[in-house]
Write a structure and sequence with these properties.
Layout: H1 11-30, H2 35-42, H3 46-54, H4 61-70, H5 80-96
Helix pairs in contact: 1-3, 2-3, 2-4
Length: 112
């Protein structure tokens, strides 16, 4: 029998997910959309929408982002063209960085 370890998240990550979940819930209600309606648009169950809105850290990030998008919640930039520019900037930066990172365990002989 294998033991499964419980994943531990930082307080910052939990707060960020809680904020995003609460924002999704508030925007859904402001748009007078029910949980089942949002679930149908995202393509998930009502219970998953409830988990997202509670800030459950085990929800798929793509589904959370899709729910935010459907409700019109900007995650990075309000304009898609600005988001594209940021993506291109990051890609440019990545081309300047090494493709792989390797830790070298070099033993130094300091005996003279």
């Amino acid at each position: 029998m294998t033991k499964t370890r419980k994943r531990v998240y930082s307080a910052y990550s939990q707060d960020a997910m809680g904020l995003l979940g609460a924002t999704i819930r508030a925007e859904r209600k402001a748009k007078k959309m029910t949980e089942p309606e949002l679930a149908e648009r995202v393509g998930v169950s009502r219970s998953l929408i409830q988990r997202i809105e509670r800030g459950d850290m085990n929800c798929g990030i793509g589904l959370v982002f899709e729910a935010a998008y459907i409700l019109g919640i900007p995650l990075f930039e309000a304009e898609p063209s600005r988001l594209t520019n940021h993506i291109l900037d990051v890609i440019d930066r990545l081309t300047l960085l090494p493709k792989t990172i390797r830790k070298k365990n070099k033993v130094i002989n300091d005996e003279f």
